[in-house]
Amino acid sequence: MIGWSILSLVIPFVPASMLVAAASGRPSGAMDRVQQFLLSFGVALGISSCTYFLWLTKPVPGLPGLAASEVVFFFFLCAIPFCFRGSRRALLALPFFGEAGSSLPSPPRNERLPPWLLICFGLVLVMATCAILMVISNKPHGSNDAYAVWNLRARFLFRGGDHWADGFSPLIGWSNPDYPLLLSATIARWWAYVGSDTVLVPQFISLFFTLATAGLLISALSTLRSPCQGLVAGLFLFSTAFFIRLGGSQYADVPIGFFMLATVVVFSLKDTSREKSPLVYSLAGIFAGCAAWTKNEGMLFVLAILVARFVSAILSGPESRKGLTREFAFFCTGLAPILAVLLFFKIKYAPSNDLFRNQGTALFLARMTDPHRYAMIVKAFLNEIVRWGSGLFPILVVYALFTGMRYNSGHLRLILTCAATLIFMLCGHFFAYLCTPNDLAWMLGGSLERLLLQLWPTFLFVLFLILTPSKGVT
Amino acid sequence: MGRSRIRLVLVLCMVVPFAVYVNGRIINKEIERWSEPARTEEARYERRLQPLKEFLPEHGVIGYVTDERVSLYKELKDFYLAQYMLCPRLLVRDIHYPSVIGVYYEIAQPDRTASQSLTLVKDFGYGIELYQGRER
């Protein structure tokens, strides 16, 4: 079982790590390595879930068929980075290709972290991990949405044989069969390699995405601002009770939050350096595609990030506007294959979304012009934001007022991208609530907190980019 | 000690205790839950449904009936769990299918299915029954 598990991870991980290395250059420190490792894992899980779904549609029978198809596919994926001159240089500089290349320039890091900070962070990290593991062990199949949606669909894919598409039947419309498949297909693919639908697989994936989100936030901020700043942001994330609980509940909100954060982190690789390969944009496109392939909200995210990149380029000066077409083209190169798989799924298998059912023009207009609905949604948003994290929000506000704002001017476009994306996402959610045909109070009560949690890691990322960095010993 | 360092210490004085409190509370709650019967509820439910599987077709739609007096939350949760446990069969709350399963919480009533014209195929005990469904 362990051997097959490792194989199922290694097959997509090798090309994914090559792609990430080619895009982001040779790692120049421990935090860079952590960042590249987590990004590689994200790409590996995202793309392998697509290949598994495609394999299901035209299966080469049995596990050897799946493994062989994947090996062939990922072998060709390995070749892509070599097509770009800058990427080829970065790839050849990787340890497993010898010492041929040279390290790409990176900012000097001479800051030492105070030991007591590391001890405090270590304590919180251990406690958070224990808390997630205990939530997982008390709910081995996950909480409601896990067994009613994500793990249920994974079981259909794995157990269904020729009838795997029964999982998208409108007869079980309550399980949202139109939801994208990244999480379910990742779980089912792993089960296929292991040969049984053990609960350990969704549990591990749930734990991985929770810790990886924190790891990515910390490593990205450590690289962009200071290691202290990264750790403080990580402490805030681990202080969010809902993040910890949901992390252990096997929901898809934490994974989509990871992919949203990964998209903006990858943009940070390019926005803060001129040396990186244009493949960075393709990598950002892959992550945005993965967000769309995880949950329907991800499609809103794709739209939001595209508009945000455009707006940020306009606002941050002529230098940014110059390469906009090239950036857009590379971004779409990464995004398009995953979006194509998603469209194929939506057109061929998924029933229509409940947001678009019972939507006559008259009803739609009535909902859009109902002031009571506006008031209800605004009230719910404000309520949720003020109560966020059961007391965490006031601490964050005090912290922000205390430290003040001092951002690096080189990060301007990145900050604008993140801020605009978050604003567009909130507007999109507001609009979705406004026109939902379902009971509004029930929708707000059941989903708003989770929608905000999806944006929370990205919000912390941009906030700690703006705030004056905490420094250790120099 | 520089201003930046003082700021860091003060920040940590706020955040670290809060993080410890939040995670400690979750751990404490989960430890309490450890001894509650609800923790093993899903496993027990799965054991109840297990013998049913070999009498059901491997694929296709299965009907589902339950007591009417159970709370809505509990009824929905058990229905979702039954679908999850019996996957890849499709479970529908309807009796117009060749196979219908009954999940009951109250003591068996001899006439509980008579009004619905269901024919009992097998009683598995623990409130789980299999019926031949009614034609439309």
Topology:
The complex is a heterodimer of chains A (474) and B (136).
Chain A: H1 2-24, H2 30-57, H3 62-79, H4 85-92, H5 115-138, H6 144-159, H7 182-194, H8 200-224, H9 227-238, H10 241-248, H11 253-271, H12 279-294, H13 297-315, H14 318-322, H15 324-348, H16 361-368, H17 371-386, H18 392-403, H19 412-435, H20 440-466
Helix pairs in contact in A: 1-2, 1-3, 1-4, 1-7, 1-12, 2-3, 2-7, 2-8, 2-12, 5-9, 5-10, 6-7, 8-9, 8-10, 8-11, 8-20, 9-20, 11-12, 11-19, 11-20, 12-13, 12-15, 13-19, 17-20, 19-20
Chain B: H1 3-34, H2 41-49, E1 61-66, H3 72-86, E2 90-92, E3 99-103, E4 119-125, E5 128-132
Parallel strand pairs in B: 1-2, 1-3
Antiparallel strand pairs in B: 3-5, 4-5
Helix pairs in contact in B: 2-3
List its traits.
heterodimer, A: 474 residues, mainly alpha, B: 136 residues, alpha/beta, 2 domains, five-stranded mixed sheet, 3 helices
Tell me about this structure.
The complex is a heterodimer of chains A (474) and B (136). Chain A has one domain. Helices cover 73% and strands 0% of the residues of chain A. Chain A is built from 20 helices and no strands. The radius of gyration of chain A is 22 Å and the shape is globular. The termini of chain A are far apart. Chain B has two domains: 33 residues; 94 residues, no CATH class. Chains A and B meet through α5, α6, α9, α10 and α18 of A and α1, α3 and β2 of B.
Instruction: Indicate how many domains the architecture of chain A comprises.
Output: 1
Q: Helicity of chain B, in percent?
A: 40-55%
Radius of gyration of chain B using CA atoms only? 24 Å
SSE ordering of chain B: HHEHEEEE
| Count of DSSP H/I helices of chain B | 3
The quaternary state of the protein chains shown equals heterodimer
Largest sheet of chain B: 5 strands, mixed
Which pair of chains has the greatest number of interface residues, and how are they split between the two chains? A-B, 59 and 39 residues
Helices of chain A, by number, come to 20
What is the average per-residue confidence, as pLDDT of chain B, rounded to a whole number?
84
Q: Which residue ranges of chain B are poorly predicted, with pLDDT under 50 across at least 5 consecutive positions?
A: none
Based on DSSP secondary structure assignment, what is the total number of beta strands of chain B? 5
Distance between the termini of chain A: 47 Å
Into which percent range does the helicity of residues of chain A fall? Answer: over 70%
Shape of chain B: elongated
